[in-house]
Task: structure prediction
Amino acid sequence: MDDATSPQILRYLPIELSGQVFGIPMSDVVAIERAHRDSPSTESTSSEDGEQVGSGAPIVDMRYLFLGESPPDHGRYVVILSAPIGSCAVLVDAVQPTCTAHASVRRVLPSLLASAGCPFGSVVLEHDGPVLIIDTSRLMERMRQVAPELIMERTYAA
Amino acid sequence: MLPEINKSNPQLFVFSVLGLPELTLAVPLFQVIAVATLERSRSVPFAPSFVVGINSWQGEVITVIDMATALCREHAIQSSHETSTSYLIALTVANQHQEMIAWPILPGAHTIELPQKVPRSELPGHISSTLTHAAITVNERPHILINLASLIPAVPA
Result:
């Protein structure tokens, strides 16, 4: 087993929301697309295994969901996520190159936050500050509470 | 009930916070890890209103809170952290789990020794009793003893 596939290593996609960086485990990322400027839509997006994903899917504006802020008018990306409970598409300001985090810099989410239902699974201590790693299933549960139609029951192979 | 600080460690760390500068607050000294400056905290979506964000200190994750808002949950105080550069970093144990919590404090924090007899005083009406052990009188001044463990709800095993 090489380093990249070791369970000790977390590969995550850094996403930007209003200047703050969050991480999404790459194991939950199916596809990344640039959003259309005028009307963000996933349209028909090909995943890595060639499956058509996201057609007509509702897109969750993460900037609004997380920070309550209206979206900027540029640089938006759609990330298609998949977890055992379903799939969804999220709109983010920007994506950064994927990162790897060794177990030595990963910490559990403080129970003060976990018990409050915050949709994060862990924290990675990067050199420029802690990065909250999204727990995709918990995020979808949150979304489902807000609007059940946001979550597609279909799942896609990562 | 007062915590068992009288027996194991008779010292308290005494401080005040933005938003409630008129109150003298205290935690057992053994819970205090450091008073330090912190970088800007990262906000945590869906966190309780009294949580400012997360930060890191010496390789550990810290939950940064607004103590004034935590103490007055029904009277949420919007404390500005711009003018405070010192954070009290404390350790709490809840659900058999240690966690570091920090909050900004005003200048003038110090330690005191608890006298043998500690008279009780009245807890101000706007202060949440769930986050306090008791209000006590030391040196003729009321001190509110903070119960940090109560910040963390019981989590099923």
